[in-house]
Every structure is written in structure tokens, then in C-alpha cells.
Amino acid sequence: MPTPADGSEATTPARTAGAESTPAPAPAPTPTFAEYPPRRINLTGPAGSGKSTLAQRLAALLSLPHLELDSLFHGPGWVPRPGFAGDVEAWLRGHGEGWVVDGNYRKVRGLVWAPPAPDADDALPGADTVVILDLPKYTVLTSLFGRTMRRVLYGETLWNGNTETWANVLSTDPAQSVLAYCYTQFEEHRQRLVDAEREGRARGGVRFVRLRSREEVEGFVAELEAAAGVANTGAGAGTTGDGPS
Questions:
Q1: Disulfide engineering: 129 pairs with which of 38, 193, 203, 231, CB 3.0-4.6 Å?
Q2: How many CB atoms are closer than 10 A to CB 24?
């Protein structure tokens, strides 16, 4: 019990007979996907976590256009394109009604996660939902190794004519090998996403969904499928991730 400055014992005011304390207000319910359907979704996570695969599924499910940020970042010979940020902004403005974007580039996170600005005529329509694929390192590396080997063995052509080679697979230089980069930078990359999520929640206006296993990924897709069915029939409620902060 606190002691007043004059040294006398502090007392607690007596409660008036019959009076009841005012209960704390109940927290606002988290909106469901049916109540708050995602229309602008950004998928983030390390290479090999399944961002593009999941993005394609969500784009098809929700009938939204899909952008893979890698396709705008990598020029021929894997050289970063100087117009990357401008191209991303132009694409987002051209698809303001809804989109699914996958990628982690910090250079354009401020564009993709642009906070709501309803009073600004030229406000950029940023993400309303951010999905973070926070899978175990072993799961990601296993998937990434399989993807890389498939691309090398079958000579898959990626963005702007780029291909992955045996030199990329065998290199231990993180700047040359996506496998080496993921192995050595996994924890640091994860922490950057944790920090970015914390900052995004503080700004508000974005719902964050963190998925920690393939099972949670499938559960998330099932929730959206159920919500989409509800939205199409105009009935009931779906399930939810984290609501808008």
C-alpha cells in the first residue's frame, strides 16, 4: 500500500453500499474472413517457404491478379533492375481493387504495406492482409533444395531469361547460391520479418497471419475457401486470422 508524503497510512475509499465497480470493456471481436475478406494480400517468408505457390492458389481462389516481386527485381543475368521500385508502385496502382503479391524486398515494403490514407487522393492501396510463412528451417531448406535441383536438372527459365546452374548449387557464397543464403541467413531473415510485423501492427490497418507449418497453410486456405463460399451465398461467418490492428 502506498504511503502519503506526510507519513500517514494511505487508506482505500470505502465502496458505497450497493454500488458495483464498472467492468472493463470487452475487447472488440476479431473480424472473420467472411466479415473482412482480404483483397490485397502480401505473402512473405524465406526462399523455399512456398510463397509463390500459395500466392497462385490464393489468386485463383479469390479471382485476383498475382505479382511475383522477383519478376520485377531480377534483370537479365540476375542483375537487379534499376526501375524495380517504380515498376512495383505502378503495378499496385494499376490493380488497386485487389491483388496478391509475394516477396520480401525491404526496398518496396513501404509500398506493398502502405498504410491506409483515405483522405489522400493519390493514396497507394497497400496490403490489407500480410501472410508470413514462418516454417521450420529444415522444412524450408528441404523444399528449397528440391526446387533448386528441379530448376537445374530441367533447365527451367525464370524471370527475364535467368536460370539456376550447378555453379549456384555448389557455391558456398550466399551472394551466388540461394541455398547458402537461406542456410546462413535464415535466423536473421526471420528476425527482420518479426520486427517488420511489429512495426506494421503498430501502424495499424493491416491484418497479419503467421503460418508455422504446412498444416497451418492448408488450414488457412480452407478458411478462405469457406469464407469465399459464405461471401458468395451471403450467409453466416467464417474463421479468422489476426484481425486488423
A1: 38
A2: 6
Q: Which of 203, 175, 179, 32 is nearest to 110 (CA)?
A: 203
pLDDT tens, position by position, 182-233:
999 999 999 999 999 999 998 888 999 999 999 999 999 999 999 887 655 5
**Please, what is the Cα angle at 43 between 38 and 48, to 5 degrees?**
150
